[in-house]
Amino acid sequence: MSEIARTREQIATYAKSMFDRGLTHGSTGNISARLSDGSLLVTPTGSSMGFLDPARISHLSEKGALNSGDKPTKEIPLHAAFYETRHRTGAVVHLHSCHSVALSLLPEIDPDNVLPPLTAYGIMLLGKVRLLPFFVPGDPAMGDAVRGLAGNGPPCSWQITDRLSLGRTCRRPFTRWKNWKRLLNSRCCCAAQMLPR
Question: How far apart (Å, rounded) are the C-alpha atoms in residues 140 and 148?
Fold first, then answer.
């Protein structure tokens, strides 16, 4: 099985797991993975992560041209920014979790540490989570905000209702698919974006 076919199958499997766990719903959320040649596999626009057809997952060239599959998610600027600034990143997960919505409704959020340190385990997994402004889905400015961090700090992000927060979700970046299992088991998400309040 080719790297493209194998990775498409893996994306579909992990996407369904996240959908089944309620970390994303409907046609929200997207996943990308960087292949060894620098090209990307990305979930298609408007697709449900619970019902992905691996053959329809978008395959983009290193320059962003569609090689095969359906039209990719409009969140490419966000994904591209992580790959450009965090060179060891092998995959990006962008979720729309009910947990992020609930968190965004809290009356007072510390912009320097959006997640209060409730347990030692939470601190070890997430560290401090910083906030950035809200961006409309697909807005290239979202990618620019991530690039503005120049790859400093955590390898993953978490965007909630009206802000984008960047926090460490694991001690090591997700450079290999086996590390995704840790992400799923911890019920953390790399990214979640919702509409403004």
Answer: 12
| 111, two tokens | 């912009």
Cα-based distances in Å from 169 to 14, 37, 41, 88, 116: 17, 26, 22, 15, 14
**Phi, psi (rounded to 5 degrees) for 29:** 85, 155
**Six-digit token string for 49:** 């992560």
Q: What is the pTM of this model?
A: 0.73
Tell me the pLDDT tens digit for each residue of 112-157: 677 777 778 777 776 777 666 777 888 899 888 888 876 665 544 4
Active-site hit among 65, 112, 121, 185: 121
d(CA 197, CA 191): 18
- What sign for the dihedral angle of Cα 103, 104, 110, 113? positive
Cα within 13 Å of Cα(88), Cβ side: 11
Question: Is 14 considered catalytic here?
Answer: no
